[in-house]
Write a structure and sequence with these properties.
Layout (H helix, E strand, L loop, with lengths): L12 E6 L2 E2 L2 E2 L4 H4 L2 E4 L2 E4 L4 E6 L25 E5 L1 H6 L4 E4 L7 E3 L5 H10 L4 H6 L36 E5 L5 H10 L8 E2 L17 E4 L25 E4 L1 H5 L5 E4 L8 E4 L1 H12 L17 H4 L1
Parallel strand pairs: 1-6, 1-7, 10-12, 10-13
Antiparallel strand pairs: 2-3, 4-5, 5-6, 7-8, 8-9, 11-12, 13-14, 14-15
């Protein structure tokens, strides 16, 4: 799947991109009326903050995800720091608009309440607020709360800028090795997950009679490549090709190889790109299954500080 390039916003403008369409018609879910802005042709001017949102529509952006956005930014400079998406969770679920980082760690996202959109965009544009601040201050739903709603596993310090190759294209899950300090630990993890087949998959040839439905095994394509060493969750969404609807990306990092339960860091690719959930490897297969059938949402697997996660309490 390929998407058309985004237009180059004028200086001081932020693109407001519709990514939800029905019969070729853009669906904004009432956002354009509820945002409380003054309209100037295709530009919405947000109240006292004066932020200028340029609304853009193209049905070829249907199902465009936050991680795909950086690749569509025109190569001319300067690169805008952020784009705003009106996506399915906004249109049908009433969530806040999705802000996509285009400059610091391109492709990661954070949701903000519509009431605070102008305030937050203005602070991002004038440099008084960094996208890292938004990520650190979001709750388990991916919504920015400032000093409230701390996740149990806060976002790590921003990694040094470096490029990574694209991840393999698959409609299933990916298990990506990011730590290469412990070969025995890595092999033990693969054994715990049932071992890999000749094509590099774990859980590909399951015997239905031996499946533990309480801890459904993970089926994932294994990526064991030093090119992805030290890859961080926020960097993942931009590396996932848009051709397939990859269920999730699970990172096997230093925590995986040293802590009890071999916890994997699972990355959200859709609702809040770059949001992470850290949970024992035995739970990730069930997570993937529930996400695939839309039985549960990603945020239900994000642990909160001071609250025992449901998989530990059960």
């Amino acid at each position: 799947m390929s998407f058309p390039e985004l237009p180059q916003p004028a200086r001081g403008e932020v693109l407001f991109v519709c990514t939800c369409y029905e019969d070729g018609r853009a669906l904004w879910g009432g956002l354009l009326d509820e945002i409380g802005a003054r309209r100037e042709d295709d530009v919405l001017v947000l109240g006292d903050h004066g932020v200028r949102l340029r609304t853009v529509e193209d049905r070829r952006w249907d199902y465009l995800h936050g991680g795909n956005v950086p690749a569509l930014v025109p190569g001319s400079s300067p690169v805008p720091p952020v784009a705003v998406l009106a996506d399915i969770p906004v249109v049908y679920g009433g969530d806040g608009p999705l802000l996509v980082d285009l400059a610091t760690i391109p492709g990661r996202g954070v949701r903000v309440s519509l009431a605070r959109l102008g305030e937050i965009l203005a602070a991002l544009l004038d440099g008084t607020l960094a996208f890292d601040d938004l990520v650190r201050g979001m709750d388990r739903y991916g919504m920015y709360q400032g000093d409230g709603g701390r996740p149990a596993f806060p976002a790590p310090t921003m990694p040094s800028r470096r490029s990574f190759p694209a991840l393999p294209s698959t409609a299933a899950a990916l298990l990506v090795r990011t730590c290469f300090d412990d070969e025995d630990g890595w092999r033990a993890l693969l054994d715990e997950l049932g071992g890999t087949d000749a094509e590099g998959w774990v859980g590909a040839d399951l015997d239905p009679d031996e499946i533990d439905v309480e801890h459904y095994p993970l089926t994932a394509l294994v990526v064991d490549d030093r090119a992805f060493e030290s890859l961080q969750p926020g960097q993942v969404p931009a590396l996932v090709p848009p051709g397939e609807h990859t269920t999730l990306v699970a990172l096997a990092d230093a925590r995986t190889l040293t802590e009890r339960g071999c916890p994997l860091t699972v990355v959200d690719l859709y609702d809040t790109p770059g949001q992470r959930a850290v949970l024992p490897c035995r739970e990730v297969g069930s997570m993937a299954c529930n996400l695939e059938i839309a039985n549960m949402d990603f945020h239900e697997f994000v642990a909160e500080e001071g609250i025992e996660p449901w998989w530990e309490a059960s």
